[in-house]
Amino acid sequence: MSIKDRDNMQELESINLSGSIIQFDKDDTTNKVQMKKQLGLLEGVAIILGIILGSGIFISPKEVIEEVGSVGLSLIIWVLCGLLSMIGALCYTELGTSIPRSGGDYAYIYEAFGDLPAFLYLWAANIIFVPTTNAIMALTVAKYVLEPFFHNCIVPADAEKLIAAVVICFLTFINCYGVKETTKMQNFFMFAKIAAVALIIISGLIWLFMGNYSSFQEPFKNTNSDPGKVAIGFYLGIFSYSGWNYLNFMTEELRNPYVNLPRAIYISLPLVTLIYVLTNVAYLAVLSPYAMSQSNAIAVTFGDKILGVMAWILPVMVSVSAFGGLSVHIMTSSRMCFVGARNGHFPSMLSHINVNKYTPTPALVFMCILSLLMLSTNKLDVLITYCTIVESFFIMLSVAGVLWLRHKRPNMTRPIKVPLWIPIVFVIICAFLVIVPCYERPFEVGMGLVITLTGVPAYLLGVCWKKKPIGFQKFNMKLTHTIQKLFMSAREEHDD
User: pTM, whole model, 2 decimals?
Assistant: First the structure.
């Protein structure tokens, strides 16, 4: 069977029933259909800052202080979450430079532990924490856009969801349009979101130095020392730091990854930790713990109290910040889906690249659809706990891969080799954070486990079962043709 497209295709390979994919051969042999190395150090820093400084810092401070009860313990948690992220990031510099492939945790788990664990990560990521995080970020954008129009009133849930859906679709389109255009936009958003938190920090510290430090007079009053509550507080804090490992998802598109990947991480993580701690100090200088717990949008409540007629500027800047963070998350997470499909763990059509823009358009649209489905719930705290518990387990597994590969492949090339105690400490801490919430939030943990384990039959049917019915193979072939025509996409070409 052959197909011709006069405008964009010169040659098409036939597609067979086993799942082979149409191949586009372009006239310009120097312009192959493959991911391009278009990202430098600035873009790498922008990606990490862009995804970390998203919606979390405008949601989680309220949730953390509700769980742990005191100002002092909440600030300690924010510092420790930053340190934990930095320890994890050190491990990921070894993983990212010794396994220089896109896909992040998926690629590392696949290399260290094989097919099934990697597939379960891919399954859990696409079913739980990637679309969930997209939905949370989009709802945050919507909440802060609508809050000034519904001052002291409840924002209509349907309006939030509608705006969130529009935001997800728009950013998916931008990411499909081109990597260069998207990264230019994200560079701008990086500085915009730093300006947003800088405004909160500066105005909050000025308020503090004017003598408004009542929240800090008894910092550990009302502390809840229950281990489960503290662990949940850590989870909520870690959610705000989530994304520190996402540049590893795009290693193949990073210029000189052996230099730029670790540098981007070393620049970004200390800066984010400092920003987050100071932002929480600013919040608590202006708002009491009770006022924070009663607020529907902390930055709006903060601005109303301290900025007067200029209070409108904070919701705008927070919306811009969350908007930029969502754009980065959509870009990076789609690469994980793309690499999984390229390895045969997802339908091969999701491993196609647009022949003109060199973007993984089918994977981007697929993640867009899953993210829209996640908008059906308003339980943000449940969603955060849900995705962070599962993601923390797989991050622990990825870092455990450092230890396993040291044993299994001692002669493996490692441009960066961290001291052995660093991955050991990280794995122990993550194990604690995974196990302790089992009795504090058993439903969320149980549901995360059940959804992850549903990947086992999906793996057996989708990956292991090679001789699928002819009718299914014909349907898959037609669907693959349709996706290729719809998105002008083709299988990635590799250099010989």
Answer: 0.73
**Tokens standing for residue 314:** 């904070």
Strands 489-491 and 352-354: antiparallel
Asked whether 332 and 47 are in contact (CB, 8 A), the reply is yes
Q: Among 2-6, 42-46, 93-97, 346-350, whose mean pLDDT is lowest?
A: 2-6
At a CB cut-off of 8 Å and minimum separation 6, what does 348 contact?
A: 19, 20, 21, 341, 480, 491
Q: Return the ∠ at Cα 427 (arms to 232 and 266), rounded to 5°.
A: 90
**Each residue of 209-256: pLDDT tens digit?**
887 777 788 888 878 877 777 877 887 787 778 777 766 666 666 777
**354 φ, ψ to 5°?**
-60, 130
Full DSSP string of 230-262: HHHHHHHHHHHHTTTTGGGGGGGGBSSHHHHHH
What 3-state class would DSSP assign to 24?
strand
Letter for the amino acid at 471?
Answer: G
Residue 1 burial (CB < 10 Å; 0-12/13-18/19+)? exposed
Cβ contact 177:203 at 8 Å: no
Of 157-161, 237-241, 287-291, 386-390, give the range with the top mean pLDDT. 157-161
Question: Taking Cα atoms as reference points, which of 139, 286, 269 lies closest to residue 200?
Answer: 286
Are residues 43 and 187 in contact, defined by beta-carbon separation less than 8 angstroms?
yes
- Pull the structure tokens for residue 396: 């622990």
Distances (CA, A) of 76 to 1, 223, 273, 291: 64, 12, 12, 20
Cα–Cα nearest to 86, from 112, 52, 130, 42: 52
